[in-house]
UniProtKB/TrEMBL annotation:
One of its GO terms (biological process) is D-serine biosynthetic process. Keywords: Lyase, Pyridoxal phosphate. CDD domains: Thr-dehyd (cd01562). The keyword Lyase applies. GO terms for molecular function: ATP binding; D-serine ammonia-lyase activity; L-serine ammonia-lyase activity; magnesium ion binding; pyridoxal phosphate binding; serine racemase activity; threonine racemase activity. This is Serine dehydratase. SUPFAM superfamilies: Tryptophan synthase beta subunit-like PLP-dependent enzymes. It comes from Flavilitoribacter nigricans (strain ATCC 23147 / DSM 23189 / NBRC 102662 / NCIMB 1420 / SS-2) (Lewinella nigricans). Residues 25-312 form the Tryptophan synthase beta chain-like PALP domain. It holds the Pfam family PALP. Belongs to the serine/threonine dehydratase family. Transmembrane segments: none annotated. Its cofactor is pyridoxal 5'-phosphate.
Length: 322
């Protein structure tokens, strides 16, 4: 069993991230950092890809779910853990529960990818369907928690989850030191927050940046306004980045991140295809957003050592955009 972790009431410190990394080691893979000469030539930068598409459950989300689950008491764990998610976080919470031998209750929207629903069921979770709206997700989750007494693990608005996600950038920095720029995609901001914290603690000379689709540019707007923003449309191909920031993630991002790069859908598709073709690895569209930013803003990235996190590989092979 992994060592017990303390409850975090504030932004994770360097020591918190180090302790989290040690504690979750049995629940995660230390994923490789890969390079590609042809993508370096195309971009004009030296690129280092942290391949969380090779992570357990196929996404970085395993880190945050493990970090949160390991902080629960025995009494809490006996009643199980719960969340709402359309995919990767659902699988991560289900897998963490399976590892710990406790129940998992996952609320998934009716339009969640069939492959992700099947994987979540495969980890032994009880899956509860709901209408595909944020309100329906929360209402259904509230009912599940009231029925079961399970503890809710939020996908990103949780310091325990943020501490877990921070371990991906920690590993990236250890395996590819002296990075000029460290970048992650931005959805709810859990990974971006964790990346920003690890970068500031373990690679303070690096510039920290985010990337998101132009269609769902709430993070870029929130970065400027200082308040959580929403989107009028969420039909980006990068389905993992459709959520809005929270107060916790926005506060961390505004303190540590220098720039949020927005990219067009066509560039996301181009970036995704290039990684498939040149690196011979499977990534989902959200993963390609940081590389799309490198291609979109050559004046920012040319000549730089750029580390970026490839967030996951759970793509629906029946709905490829190319």
């Amino acid at each position: 069993m992994s060592p017990k972790l303390p409850v975090l009431q504030q932004v994770p410190s360097r020591a918190d991230i180090e302790a989290t990394h040690l504690a979750i080691a049995d629940l995660i893979h230390r994923t490789p950092v890969m390079t590609c000469d042809s993508l370096d030539q195309i971009s004009g930068a030296k690129l280092f890809f942290k391949c969380e598409n090779f992570q357990k459950v196929g996404a970085f989300k395993m880190r945050g779910a493990a970090s949160a689950a390991l902080r629960l008491t025995k009494a809490e764990l006996e009643k199980g853990i719960a969340t709402h998610s359309s995919g990767n976080h659902a699988q991560a919470v289900a897998r963490a529960a399976q590892y710990l031998g406790v129940p998992a209750y996952i609320v998934m929207p009716e339009n969640a990818p069939a492959s992700k629903r099947a994987a979540t069921l495969g980890y032994g979770a009880e899956v509860i369907s709901c209408a595909p709206t944020i309100e329906a997700r929360q209402e259904t989750l509230d009912q599940v928690v009231a029925r079961t007494g399970a503890t809710f693990i939020h996908p990103y608005d949780d310091y325990h989850v943020i501490a877990g996600q921070a371990t991906a950038a920690k590993e990236l920095i250890e395996d590819a030191p002296a990075l000029d720029i460290i970048m992650a995609p931005v959805g709810g901001g859990g990974l971006m927050s964790g990346t920003a914290l690890s970068s500031s603690y373990f690679s303070p000379d690096s510039h920290i940046m985010g990337a998101e689709p132009e269609i769902v540019n709430d993070a870029a707007r929130a970065f400027e306004s200082g308040r959580v923003e929403t989107n009028t449309r969420i039909d980006t191909i990068a389905d993992g980045l459709r959520t809005n920031l929270s107060e916790k993630t926005l506060t961390i991002i505004r303190e540590h991140v220098e720039r949020i790069n927005t990219v067009e859908e066509a560039m996301i598709i181009r970036a995704m295809r290039l990684i498939w073709e040149r690196m011979k690895i499977v990534i989902e569209p959200s993963c390609a957003v940081p590389f799309a930013a490198v291609l979109t803003y050559p004046e920012v990235f040319a000549g730089q050592r750029v580390g970026m996190i490839l967030t996951g590989g759970n793509v629906d092979l029946e709905k490829l955009p190319f």
